[in-house]
Write a structure and sequence with these properties.
The chain has helices at residues 26-29, 36-41, 164-167, 194-198, 205-214, 322-327, 331-336, 354-371; strands at 45-50, 59-63, 66-72, 78-81, 96-97, 102-103, 110-111, 117-119, 137-138, 140-143, 146-150, 162-163, 174-178, 228-234, 237-245, 251-259, 263-265, 275-276, 279-287, 290-299, 311-312, 315-316, 387-388, 393-397. The protein is α+β, with helices and mostly antiparallel strands. Strand 14 (228-234) and strand 15 (237-245) form a beta hairpin. The structure holds FE2/S2 (inorganic) cluster and fe (ii) ion. Fe (ii) ion is lined by residues 200, 206, 211, 331.
């Protein structure tokens, strides 16, 4: 009789039992008021809605962990107010928008879009302190089809930038704005930390693997060739230059940028046209574990911006079955599966992560600048100097690629 066989045993070299507790780099990911990153983010303007989101029905929005009420008075002025009424705290979500402001549902106090109290109908003589009563509010502005808000210290409010790609339109071009998180690769509100997405902008190597193979064909063939890649720190972010040699020896030069505070400067990888960057994505941290992306683009036909949304296995993310999500993972599946907030202590950054290392270093430096009382990179206070330029785009270079160019 044969001796019974020993069962096969696999002895791992590193036991998962010994995995230590994760440590998160709070200074990169936390968005609340008073946190290091939250204070950096609050030194810039952020889009908080499409222009049409500010209307005569008050809308509750969440930005950087704060709940706020967005509305537009009948006279056209948008307002962004703290939800708790300055009287006794009823939410202005239930208020009624009037010609010059919003009226609280509880006792009828009315506030203008800037928070000034206009009426106190239950008070004798209409309220003796009506003029001095202020509802906490944030400054807002409209530009490029978006509502922008500044949520930082009032005395440090910078000018709202203008963006060169949107200021110099060619014949037949116009601007479109979108709030569907184009480039996020998943749902409109992405349920993980915003920084996981932001640093993906300077992770060019995932294009070949994730988008070139796992997601199904997403980009043009040229995008999937092995590139020569160079990373540079710029005054306001990190730039990635990818050089790909085409069949005729010419070079496809693609430049993408991540800029502080949250901007994606990513030329469209699907259309195969050579041009300076045509769209900008503004990642909006809703709170520490949710974000969305507002996008503005130069287009030539109405609705063109919707075509920028990526497809996996030929379908939009929202159309995929659970099995197809498993079979064709994209940016969302990769980034969300890193965790609601990724475990920085458990990473092993390698050579291909150079862009991420540079971006984290630059952002951490800006966090420190703000903590020490300074003004971070890219904020300007001179209205005459509000134009922001980018180097990003898809370019065709007839010369052969030379290393280090
Ligand atoms: S709580 Fe708003 S008017 Fe009284
Ligand atoms: Fe991607």
């Amino acid at each position: 009789m044969n001796a019974p066989q020993e069962p096969l045993r696999i002895i791992p070299i590193r036991s998962a039992y010994e995995l230590p507790e994760p440590v998160i780099r709070d200074e990169l990911v936390r968005t609340g008021r008073g946190t290091a990153m939250g204070e950096l983010l609050r030194r810039y303007w952020h889009p908080v809605g499409l222009a049409g989101d500010a209307g005569d029905t008050p809308r509750q929005i969440r930005v950087l962990g704060e709940d706020l009420i967005l509305f537009r008075a009948g006279n056209g002025e948008p307002g962004l107010l703290h939800p708790r009424c300055a009287h006794r705290g009823a939410s202005l979500l239930y208020g009624k928008v009037e010609d010059d402001g919003i009226r609280c549902c509880y006792h009828g106090w009315k506030f203008g879009p800037g928070g000034q109290c206009l009426e106190q109908p239950c008070e004798p003589d209409g309220g003796t302190r009506v003029g001095r009563m202020l509802q906490p509010a944030y400054p807002v502005a409209e530009r490029y089809g978006l509502i922008w808000a500044y949520m930082g210290p009032p005395e440090r409010q910078p000018v709202l930038p203008r963006f060169e790609p949107f200021e110099n339109l060619e014949e037949g071009e116009f601007l479109e704005a979108d709030d569907q998180s184009i480039g996020g690769g998943g749902p409109v509100i992405v349920d993980c930390n915003w920084f996981q997405h932001y640093e993906n902008v300077v992770d060019p190597w995932h294009v070949m693997v994730l988008h070139g193979s796992f997601s199904g064909a997403q980009f043009t063939d040229a995008m999937l060739r092995a590139p020569t890649i160079r990373f540079d720190t710029t005054p306001r972010g990190v730039k990635v230059t990818s050089l790909r040699t085409l069949d005729d020896g010419s070079v496809f030069r693609r430049v993408t940028e991540a800029c502080v505070p949250t901007w994606r400067v990513v030329p469209n990888p699907r259309v195969g046209q050579y041009a300076r960057v045509e769209s900008l994505g503004f990642v909006l941290p809703i709170d520490d574990t949710n974000f969305r992306i507002y996008t503005v683009a130069r287009v030539r036909t109405a609705g063109e911006l919707k075509g920028f949304r990526s497809r996996q296995g030929g379908k939009l993310w929202s159309e995929l079955t659970p099995q197809e999500h498993r079979s064709f993972p994209g940016d969302y599946e990769a980034q969300k599966s890193q965790g609601d907030i990724t475990w920085h202590s458990h990473e092993n950054l390698a050579t291909s992560d150079r862009g991420i290392a540079l971006l984290r270093r630059l952002v951490a430096e800006q966090v420190k600048v703000v903590a020490e009382g300074g003004d971070p990179a890219g904020v300007g206070f001179d209205p005459a100097d509000d134009l922001v330029r980018f180097e990003a785009g898809n370019f065709h270079d007839p010369r052969p690629a030379e290393p280090g160019r």
